[in-house]
Amino acid sequence: MAQIASTQLLLTPNEMGMADKAAVVAGESAFTLMASAGKAVADAIMTRWSKHSVLVMAGPGNNGGDGFVIAQALLQHGWPVTLAFMGQIDVMSEEAQAHAKAWQGEWQTLSPTQLENAELVVDALFGAGLSRPIEGVAHDMLEAVAQSGLPVCAVDVPSGLDGETGQVFGVTVNAELTVTFFRKKPGHLLFPGRGLCGELMVADIGIPVTVLDELNLQTWENNPELWYQKYPWPRLDGHKFHRGHAVVYGGETMTGASRLTARGAMRIGAGLVTLAAPIKAWAVYATALTGVMVAKLEQSQETEDFEELLLDSRHNAIAVGPGAGLAGFERIRTRKIALTALLTGRATVLDADALSAFSEDPQILFDAINGPCVMTPHEGEFMRLFPDINNSPEINNTPEIKKNHPDNKLTRARLAAKQSGAVVVLKGADTVIAAPDGLAIINSNAPAELATGGSGDVLTGFIVGLLAQGMEPFDAAAAAVWMHGEVGNDIGAGLIAEDLPDHLPKVLSTFKTQYFS
Ligand SMILES: NC(=O)C1=CN([C@@H]2O[C@H](COP(=O)(O)OP(=O)(O)OC[C@H]3O[C@@H](n4cnc5c(N)ncnc54)[C@H](O)[C@@H]3O)[C@@H](O)[C@H]2O)[C@@H](O)CC1
Ligand SMILES: [K+]
């Protein structure tokens, strides 16, 4: 995956530091890399804004070094520039010192009063090297910038944002534009970070792509580049059975949920979809569904009937959860149905009630997972199913920045995948898809409109539909989440879950034109 989608790779600040070092070893000069970084930011500023009075805040590390380059470039183009420095010049890196010496304007010491005459702020205080909470004058300055409402261009990250987790380390600013270098970082895509970066630009500063080979990277931003080659396009000579047969369990009361799942599975191309429902609700399903077949599960023997249905090995992918039911006896039934599905060893998606039903004894669920499985919890379901993860050593023994912010969504999803043996899709505006082997993808195309009732049920349908067509769970989850986001963007305001499956053909056709013609 690394080779086919190198541009989608995400590097933590630490990995970025290693890439930077490897580039220098490969013959790039650190001075030139910094010059290119600063120039890229200055160019972006001059493209976006007309000539303004600029305050460049330069911090004690290489982020500050970039600040000197930016200040000098803007000055040379006739912009009024104030340079506000915080640090000790003689302990800065050689390249930062060299660029600081090249600065031809006046030096000032960082102070909130400098904001009085500023029209635009360049935030080059802290970047990848942030290692403890921001205090003192830098803290006061960032707070004053935030309160001033002035437009901010952040260098690499808004200072105070942890590039690894997307969490804020005490204080930060809301940037209108963030220019980062070489590759994005997870913190640019994970909330709240994503909301603080404004427009995010990635500048090529001359780091050779070959440095990535040494790094064993495991995190990507979701994009068809990652999985389009494995996408199961229907073959002209194909038969509907080649496109799989998905089985969706439907509960007794909330019948809409599993119908949305079934429709999602149909739309994404499953050859056949059967909705299996308890007899009490059977008539509702049978009346409402046309292309989807409905199977009856007789009273008091629902699990046995479900098991029998699955004896037919053409039923190659199963979804349990949407509308499955949690009240009283339904909870027991939902558990049995989920375990029956897992026992087949066939590709299974567990969502909603199928996750919550195991909140008291999640290990029973994890022990039953021994085939391809995708779990799609939202935050609430995740907390119920993985209560220990926030207290796990991998979260708490990391440096202080992470210790103070256990809400590292990427790490949590990875730990959950490892613990359960399933691909975990931790849903939200920044959905993370993590596999038990450590690979992870952060999704970034979901619009706010997708946060609506039934939207997750459709996603489950997209996943099970792709599984039925033979896609591997990690790829199927990534592709489904991306399609779901694209459909959401396509519909926009006024979106309801019912629209999602029916807008998919348009998105699929654009995707097909782009990648397969
Ligand atoms: N490929 C790369 O990695 C490149 C990186 N560049 C820049 O270099 C930056 C990284 O440079 P550094 O590693 O020097 O990191 P920073 O510039 O973020 O700052 C590190 C310095 O700040 C101090 N510090 C950390 N947290 C602090 C706190 N809370 N309060 C006070 N001081 C604190 C550290 O002790 C260290 O002296 C990137 O963000 C980017 O802007 C560019 O110059 C070009 C190439
Ligand atoms: K910064």
Automatic annotation (TrEMBL):
Family matches, as SUPFAM superfamilies: Ribokinase-like, YjeF N-terminal domain-like
Please name the Gene3D superfamilies in this protein's record. Answer: 3.40.1190.20, YjeF N-terminal domain
Query: Which Pfam families does this UniProt record tie to the protein?
Result: Carb_kinase, YjeF_N
What reaction gets catalysed by this protein?
A: (6R)-NADPHX = (6S)-NADPHX; (6R)-NADHX = (6S)-NADHX; (6S)-NADPHX + ADP = AMP + phosphate + NADPH + H(+); (6S)-NADHX + ADP = AMP + phosphate + NADH + H(+)
Q: Which residues are noted in the entry as K(+)-binding?
A: N63, D123, S159
Requisite cofactors: K(+); Mg(2+)
What does the note under cofactor report? Binds 1 potassium ion per subunit.
What InterPro entries does the annotation carry? Answer: Carbohydrate_kinase_pred_CS (IPR017953), CARKD (IPR000631), Nnr (IPR030677), Ribokinase-like (IPR029056), YjeF_N_dom (IPR004443), YjeF_N_dom_sf (IPR036652)
Q: Which residues bind AMP?
A: K427, G428, A429, D430, T431, G456
On the tree of life, the source organism's domain of life is: Bacteria
Q: One GO molecular function term?
A: NAD(P)HX epimerase activity
Residues reported to bind (6S)-NADPHX: 62-66, 127-133, 156, 257, 323, 378, 457
| One GO BP annotation of this record | metabolite repair
EC number of this enzyme? 4.2.1.136, 5.1.99.6
The UniProt keyword set, sorted, is: ATP-binding, Isomerase, Lyase, Metal-binding, Multifunctional enzyme, NAD, NADP, Nucleotide-binding, Potassium
Q: Which residues form the YjeF C-terminal domain?
A: 223-511
Record note on quaternary structure: Homotetramer.
Q: Per its UniProt record, what HAMAP family does this chain match?
A: NADHX_dehydratase, NADHX_epimerase
The entry sums up its family as follows: In the C-terminal section; belongs to the NnrD/CARKD family.
NCBIfam families from the UniProt entry: yjeF_cterm (TIGR00196), yjeF_nterm (TIGR00197)
Protein's UniProt name: Bifunctional NAD(P)H-hydrate repair enzyme
Gene this protein is translated from: nnrE
